Q: What sequence folds into this?
């Protein structure tokens, strides 16, 4: 779900960022008095989100000490900036994708002030000598001016998730194969449909080792988003299996959608090779 649905991805990222904030003061330094309502005080948490490592240290020799703030417009190399400066730069300079004649920013600009690396107090605190397990020496004063995020704390689940409905093009598939014939592998295509609204993130799980799915997860869009289905294929292999009839399932589920899960019955008949051209026996 985290890898296929934007809302779950953002929710998981929020949880991770909160954990990084909570690592202070024992495992992370503090900006100012650690006020969570101020954007500037999240500097170390945002740095930690991408790894509290030397590669993201603002005084790393790989970065130009006199670098201009990151503008997030494609004119500067991301490699010239530590992760947290990329984030603060994009917060304050949201991308403006071109859609026809429209260049609407993806979000309202959020001003943020970065630590002043030319300040003796900040420079000494962030010295690489202080970049130790006990990071209390890296506490810095809050950069000024400071800012709050004015985005209202509101949300409508239906606007974010929609009302997706899980449906499949087929729920019963059959295969017939010859024992130990590895060149004979059956394939059946299954279309994942969403007659509801919003993005439907789904997962497909086979019940047995002889059943394989070519694609185990994906997204099917509802009517409000273009009514775009997804698809995956089911295959089976009779290698090392005795002659007989085998039954299994592929369970397709979407935890937040109606109609979930849907079970596909899979039936495999394995035939003995008769050694008579054109004839097999089960």
A:
């Amino acid at each position: 779900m985290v890898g296929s649905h934007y809302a779950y991805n953002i929710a998981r990222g929020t949880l991770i960022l909160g954990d990084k904030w909570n690592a202070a003061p024992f495992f992370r330094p503090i900006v100012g008095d650690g006020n969570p309502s101020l954007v500037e005080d999240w500097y170390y948490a945002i740095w930690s989100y991408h790894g509290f490592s030397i590669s993201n240290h603002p005084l790393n020799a790989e970065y130009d000490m006199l670098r201009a703030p990151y503008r997030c417009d494609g004119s500067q190399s991301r490699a010239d900036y530590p992760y947290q400066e990329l984030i603060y730069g994009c917060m304050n300079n949201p991308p403006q994708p071109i859609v026809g004649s429209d260049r609407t920013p993806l979000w309202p600009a959020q001003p943020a002030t970065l630590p002043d690396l030319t300040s003796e107090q900040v420079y000494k605190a962030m010295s690489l000598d202080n970049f130790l397990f006990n990071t209390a020496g890296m506490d810095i004063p809050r950069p000024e001016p400071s800012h709050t995020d004015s985005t209202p704390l509101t949300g409508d689940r239906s606007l974010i998730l929609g009302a997706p409905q899980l449906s499949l093009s087929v729920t019963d598939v059959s295969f017939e194969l010859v024992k130990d014939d590895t060149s004979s592998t059956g394939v059946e295509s299954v279309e994942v449909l969403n007659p509801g609204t919003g993005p439907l993130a789904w997962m497909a799980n086979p019940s047995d080792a002889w059943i394989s799915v070519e694609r185990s997860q994906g997204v099917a869009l509802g009517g409000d988003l273009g009514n775009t289905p997804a698809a995956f294929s089911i295959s089976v292999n009779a290698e090392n299996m005795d002659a007989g009839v085998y039954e299994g399932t592929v369970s397709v589920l979407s935890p937040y959608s109606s109609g979930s899960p849907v079970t596909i019955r899979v039936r495999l008949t394995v035939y003995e090779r008769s050694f008579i051209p054109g004839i097999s026996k089960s």
Residues 6-138 form one domain. The chain has five helices and ten strands. Strands lie at 167-168, 172-178, 186-193, 199-206, 211-213, 217-221, 230-236, 244-253, 262-276, 279-281.
